[in-house]
Amino acid sequence: MGHAKPSAIMAVAEKAKALKAQGRDIISFSIGVPNFLPGEHVYAAAREALARDSGQYGSNRGADALLDAFLGHIERLGLSGYTRRHCATGVGAKHLLYNLAEALLDPGDTIAFATPYWTTYVDIADIVGAKTLLLPAPASQDYKITPAQLDEALAKKPKVYLFNNPSNPTGMVYTRDEIAALAEVFAKHPDTWIISDDIYNTLVFDGIGYHNIVNARPELRERTVFVDSLSKTYGMPGWRVGLMAGPEVVAQAVTTLNSNHITNLPEIVTAAAVAALAGPQDVPQQKCREFEAKRDIVLEALAAIPGVKCPRPQGAFYVFPDISCAFGKSHGGRLVANDVELCNLLLEAEGVACVPGSAFGEPNALRISYTCPDAQLKEGLRRIQAFFAALQ
Ligand code: PLP
Predict the structure, then answer these.
(1) pLDDT at site 11
(2) CA-CA distance, 354 to 343, in Å (whole number)?
(3) Do the beta carbons of residue 211 and residue 230 sit within 8 Å?
């Protein structure tokens, strides 16, 4: 634990909280929460489960009803041919990713992934004692890795490649053709396990659809683990439901870890998750359309700031503009030395909280999480524009 570093996301959140407590009007674009509630049928299912709760231990793998509802859900995503034995659950995707790292990596093994990355990937590697191999995917390449980069990385035979699509923090989504090209490279390198963290899979815009490497090259199924969660797509982050589908041996390993760590997901949570996955899908679909419209609001506001460059995200609920044009300038007499300082000054001067890109391994950017109501979103963006206009 001596390795653990203070989190840049938490530092911003703490500072925003302190300013709010002083009576400041703070707009937060910092935390990646979906900001909507699941449909009433989810709460009804939870209440019913509460009324009949057996209070007994449940399945280490996950209740059959939950695994079946998940299989139906991934079938809608085009992932067919999986059975309950290919599936397992976790207390959120985060827990599942830790379990997968424990199952697949020994100390000293290498795990590869792209930069910018979701912050926790680095911590997971650190905790299991794995080395990281980072593939730079800067704004100039739309925050996406290329097949050539992947080929070069996989030639070094990392034990695991951790893929994330749609991406947190960039919101970028690989197209069908891009997925096909990457899948081809993965197929060339049989020694690497693939974890596909696709928890934002139903939040994809512009009609480009969600695509998975397993659909592109079915033989990859033997070593690819698809990771999903109800947190972002169903508005259920606090219910803590993560799910996976992959090789039976991996699902069994995760089940065994569950039997030692958590035993099972709670019965009430399980009932709510079944209702979310198997019930009407209108709330997630509606939210996807709303987020797409919010994405457009953010992009329009950022396009009006000279020097700020922003690849067009097509999913999740994040925008990740390159704000390096501000470095070396000053705001109110204070130097904007880097992304962390910029986020500090933006918070102090305009009361807008964003996360510095260095939290995600990309110090030229900042992350805007745009799930708040439109009026707040527009006001926050107006303040960001004012901040940049005042730079000297
Ligand atoms: N993977 C990515 C890319 C995420 O952004 C997050 C949460 O922010 C997670 C996994 C973890 O999600 P959960 O709430 O299911 O633990």
Answers:
(1) 78
(2) 6
(3) no
Q: Which atom of ligand 1 is nearest to the CA of 164?
A: 3
Q: Give the SS3 label for residue 317.
A: coil
Say if pTM beats, i.e. exceeds, 0.90: yes
Q: Regarding predicted confidence, which is higher, 55 or 199?
A: 199
Distance CA 367, CA 171 (A): 10
Q: How far is CA 77 from the centre of its chain?
A: 17
Nearest to 358 by CA among 53, 11, 28, 60: 11
Say yes or no to pLDDT of 3 above 80: no
Tokens of 54: 């057996």
The predicted-structure confidence for 110-167, as pLDDT tens digits, reads as follows 999 999 999 999 999 999 999 999 999 999 999 999 999 999 999 999 999 999 999 9
Residue type, 391: L
Report the alpha-carbon distance of residue 28 to residue 355 in Å, rounded.
Answer: 10
pLDDT band at 10 (very low <50, low <70, confident <90, very high): confident
Region of residue 319 (left: phi > 0; alpha: psi -120 to 50; beta: else): beta
pLDDT of 284 > 70? The answer is: yes
Contact residues of ligand 1, CB 6 A cut-off: 32, 92-94, 118, 164, 168, 197, 199, 229, 231, 237, 242
Closest to 349 in 3D by CA, of 369, 319, 326: 326
* CA gap 300, 173 in Å, rounded: 19
How does pLDDT run across 358-371, given as a tens digit for each residue? 999 999 999 999 99
Q: What is the mean pLDDT of residues 23-52?
A: 94
* Cβ atoms 204, 291 nearer than 8 A: no
CA–CA dist 207, 21 (Å, integer): 42
CA 99 to centroid of ligand 1, rounded, Å = 14
Question: How far does the centroid of ligand 1 lie from the alpha carbon of residue 304, in Å?
Answer: 31
**How far is Cα 337 from Cα 332, in angstroms, rounded to an integer?**
13
Domains identified in the chain and CATH numbers: 8-31+283-389 (3.90.1150.10), 53-278 (3.40.640.10)
